[in-house]
Amino acid sequence: MSRSLKKGPYIDENILKKIAGKKPEQAGTVKTWARRSMISPEMVGFTFGVHNGRIHVDVFVTEDMVGHHLGEFSPTRKFVRHGGKMQKEIELKAKESEVAAAKAAKEAATTASAK
Question: What is the value of pTM for the model shown?
Fold first, then answer.
């Protein structure tokens, strides 16, 4: 649920203080724990180190991100992958066929250049 228009967007004051009067090149990475802060147009071009509970993830703010929260771009959970043993075998077979195709293409190129 979004915040009411009457209240306006929530932007942490400390973030605004850190970027006030600075250019994005000067500021470097601005570390923050305020994942719930909304991205405003003044933040475009800055790089924020958004804490995900373990480390600070660098987030470069672009115009498309305005209106979203900083925490949306710093995932808190690490996706390993689905599958297991069967999935690993399928990926191995696919990789082997890819390598074989690359070798065949390389041999064809060398025989064509030799002629």
Answer: 0.68
